[in-house]
Fold this sequence. Notes:
Layout: E1 8-12, H1 19-26, E2 32-34, E3 37-39, E4 53-55, H2 58-66, E5 70-76, E6 79-84, H3 85-93, E7 97-101, H4 104-113, E8 118-123, H5 127-137, H6 142-156, E9 164-167, H7 171-186, H8 194-206
Parallel strand pairs: 1-7, 1-8, 2-7, 3-4, 8-9
Antiparallel strand pairs: 3-6, 5-6
Helix pairs in contact: 1-7, 5-6
Amino acid sequence: MSRKKGRLYVISGPSGTGKGTVCAELLKDIGNEFSVSMTTREPREGEVDGREYFFVTHEIFRDNIEAGNFLEYATVFDNYYGTPKDMVLSRLERGRNVILDIDVQGGLQVKKAMPDAVLIFILPPSLAELRCRLEGRGTETPEKIERRLGQALNEIKLIGEYDYYIVNNDREEAAALAKSIIAAESARVPEAVKPIIREYENESKGN
Length: 207
């Protein structure tokens, strides 16, 4: 069989649900690659430019919007987040799966631009648990935490737009379920089946 084109997987969910942990486990598979997003927010402690995000100014981000250089972009809490288009498309053509860790707004934009993308929503066990996780970070004020909880509920209301959901009560179980989704999708029969049939027909003729 010839090499299959890679598939785009979007991992979304409210802040504090453990999206990053799930993505980290998925990236242990050599067939999966992470697409680094661009953002105008300030780096958090330990984050490195070009690894977690490409950290840029608002001016540079707007220049990229005008140039059509994003697969998706969104404004979240007064900052821009976007996915560079060329990087994603080139990796898919090389047969690599691309993992996007983006917010729900961005995920829906990707689904509109690339209907073949697989969207996975990460849920917290409860809003109370989500509050505990956000407070445990110790990086945000009570006012910002309340904003995030309100945003979380708004995002959860859009879960029907996604293909799969995972309740992240245990990170190992959540990661295992995400891996099983990717494994199943890799064996999905594509709509355009003629190229697959043709390969076997040609092989049969050769014998």
